[in-house]
Amino acid sequence: MVEAFIFDLDGVITDTAHYHYLAWEKLGNEIGIKIDEEFNETLKGISRLQSLEKILILGNKENDFTNEEKEKMANYKNSYYVSLIENITFKDVLPGILELLEKIRLNNIKIGLASASKNAVKVLNNLELTKYFNFIADAAICKNSKPAPDIFLMAAKGLNVNPINCIGIEDASAGIDAINDAKMYSVGVGDREILNKAKFVVDSTEKLKFEALIKLFEVKN
Ligand code: BG6
Ligand code: MG
Fold this sequence. Notes:
- The chain is of the alpha/beta class.
- The protein is built from nine helices and six strands; from the N terminus they run E-H-H-H-H-H-E-H-E-H-E-H-E-E-H.
- The chain is globular.
- Helices cover 45% and strands 10% of the residues.
- It starts with a strand and ends with a helix.
- Helix 1 (16-31) packs across helix 4 (67-85).
- It has two domains: 4-15 and 90-220, Rossmann fold; 17-87, DNA polymerase, domain 1, CATH 1.10.150.240.
- The chain has a six-stranded parallel sheet with strand order 3-2-1-4-5-6, with helices on both faces.
- Bound molecules: 6-O-phosphono-beta-D-glucopyranose and magnesium ion.
């Protein structure tokens, strides 16, 4: 029996994955590192500082900055990102997500959030979706970020459910690894090749249908 649905935020509930990309691209331009969409894929789901480290390695600049300078760059990226998410509203909820949340709630199944973002609460509030979530895992106190299962396990614990009875939904390959390692049923949204370790993949959020997901989960058990 499905006890909970646990969602990633950026790229699943709203298209903030694109805003993260724009913000890293802006920082990259200023320090002379070109970030393209393909490379950006490898940044999805991972923490702010880990993303910065990857970008510096890409540009062979990993030894060029002190920790203090790196902190400043991460803050710079975040300030721009925060300015981009300032104006998002319920209209920015991706297609099918509201209907899915409504159906989960109607069926008395719990809903959790397992986002790596420290801006998650702000984004959910701007989207007016906070009321649907029974528990929001706090990335700021999560020791190991995705692909480690920690944030999904934190969400299951906060919801007081067994991870094996959870469906996790993600747009990032690192997130699918996290869900699988947490022993949850993994659902990917996006490119089938990139998300090839997911148990089930849809190419867009409007294809996330409550009844179909429940059926898939039941068949696997
Ligand atoms: C994840 C995004 O949800 O959150 C990553 O997929 C991002 O791209 C990470 O780096 C951390 O977000 P933030 O808002 O704390 O910088
Ligand atoms: Mg994501």
